[in-house]
Design a protein that fits this description.
Distance between the termini: 39 Å
Structural class: alpha/beta
Strand content: 15-25%
Number of strands: 14
Number of domains: 2
Largest sheet: 6 strands, parallel
CATH architecture of the largest domain: 3-Layer(aba) Sandwich
Radius of gyration: 25 Å
Length: 418
């Protein structure tokens, strides 16, 4: 396997689109850190603010490795913080709060994803930051949002939220829940986090554009529940069209077993049925009235269609099956496991896995998904490893605020910084 390693650069030398944009990130776990990592990959300078004790909560996730000082660095942190600098500041202390207010004007954007209301209790909310930085772009990412532009407060505004909570509330889990069984929670990893991150990134970029046009402060408010309502658009859309409790007569959209695993076939239009019949060597089914509509396919999927497709596929690999269907213009793809994803030639060619060398004596690197945004003339990389807790505190405070070594030492002795 060949990975795109930390420090490597692919593509021509050139400017990245967000070079010159500076982001101060008061962030935890995955939703906002994924957004700021994406913005860093596009050229932004991201300074991450962590608590001096345990740092970002993602450092405590599992599985984990250890940093050079023997502290735990969890998987959630490792995959969401490439390309950032870390400062450790106690935001609950008055001096720590003042450091953030002093730093804010040095940055274009301040972003936060604290538990609902926590940023205001720290007196570092939108109004506090605008008072210190009148042209700031301020982005909040929370479970249920704030009252913005006259909108009413959410009845869930005080609830903490992780991805699985807003995923559940979106109707996503109920859509495919089997009768009599509990929902399958987090079926795709933290989709609620990553999708929310993308909307936060888009909102921030739009706000920067508006800030440049008006010169005034901009507020971006992204609620994870809102995002999941958007991501699960078929839940409410289908219900409004009279369909509840499933996907209805959507056609063939399921997995079939081949000789070496499963592949997915999606056939959603009646005119495609004849091609399926020809490929699986059942040409007589093309004009059989039992299979005339996609609703008929759903009825006969388990009794007729699945046995026929899997009998045909039994002597073929999943990749051979997919090749046969895609060559006929149908849509099909193999169901990969983790090893197959890591060895896939597309993933390698598109630099979609970044390898970071471990610091705890284990030879295999930590793998993190690369940047899915490819831009002509814009280089990919170099990535920089995740920061150790508070690694850049002294450099940022001296470089941005002009604090002397003695002043920094005094703050550290008081526990204000780490």
């Amino acid at each position: 396997m060949s990975y795109f390693s930390v420090g490597e650069v692919f593509g021509p030398a050139g400017r990245k689109p967000l070079e010159g944009i500076r982001i101060l990130a008061l962030e935890q776990m995955q939703a906002l850190p994924f957004a700021t990592q994406l913005l860093a990959r596009l050229g932004a300078d991201v300074v991450k603010v962590e608590s001096p004790g345990s740092g970002d909560l993602g450092r405590g996730s599992l599985p984990a490795m250890t940093d050079p000082e023997g502290r735990t660095v969890g998987a959630t942190f490792l995959r969401n913080n490439l390309g950032k600098r870390s400062i450790a500041v106690d935001l609950k202390s008055e001096e720590g709060r003042q450091l953030i207010l002093d730093l804010a004007p040095k940055f274009d954007v301040v972003m936060e994803n604290f538990r609902a209301g926590a940023i205001n209790r720290l007196r570092l909310g939108y109004d506090d930051i605008v008072a210190a930085h009148p042209s700031v772009v301020f982005c909040s990412l929370s479970g249920f949002g704030y009252s913005v532009n006259g909108s009413a407060s959410s009845p869930y505004g005080s609830w903490p939220a992780l991805a699985a909570i807003v995923e559940a509330m979106s109707g996503m889990y109920e859509l495919k829940r089997e009768e009599g069984k509990p929902p399958a929670v987090a079926p795709m990893g933290a989709v609620g986090d990553i999708s929310s991150a993308l909307f936060a990134a888009i909102g921030t970029l739009a706000a920067l554009r508006l800030r440049d046009a008006t010169g005034g402060p901009q507020r971006v408010d992204v609620a994870m529940f809102d995002v999941m309502v958007a991501m699960t658009d078929i839940v409410t859309n289908f219900a409004s069209l009279g369909l509840r409790g499933g996907l209805g007569a959507s056609g063939i959209m399921t997995g079939f077993k081949a000789s070496d695993g499963y592949f997915v076939l999606q056939v959603i239009r009646e005119h495609q049925w004849a091609q399926v019949c020809a490929i699986i060597e059942r040409p007589e089914w093309a004009d059989d009235p039992r299979f005339a509509t996609r609703a008929d396919w759903n009825v006969r999927l388990e009794s007729d269609i699945r046995p026929a497709i899997e009998a045909w596929a039994a002597s073929r690999t999943k990749l051979e099956c997919c090749t046969a269907f895609t060559s006929a213009g149908l849509t099909s793809g193999p169901v990969f496991d983790a090893d197959e994803v890591m060895a896939d030639p597309h993933v390698e060619a598109r630099h979609m896995l970044v390898a970071m060398e471990r610091t705890d004596g284990i030879a295999e690197p930590v793998l993190t998904p690369g940047n899915p945004i490819k831009m002509e003339g814009v280089p990919e990389g170099p990535e920089t490893r995740v920061p150790w807790l508070g690694e850049h505190t002294d450099a940022v405070l001296s470089g941005e605020l002009g604090l002397t070594p003695d002043a920094i030492a005094a703050l550290r002795d008081k526990g204000v910084i780490g």
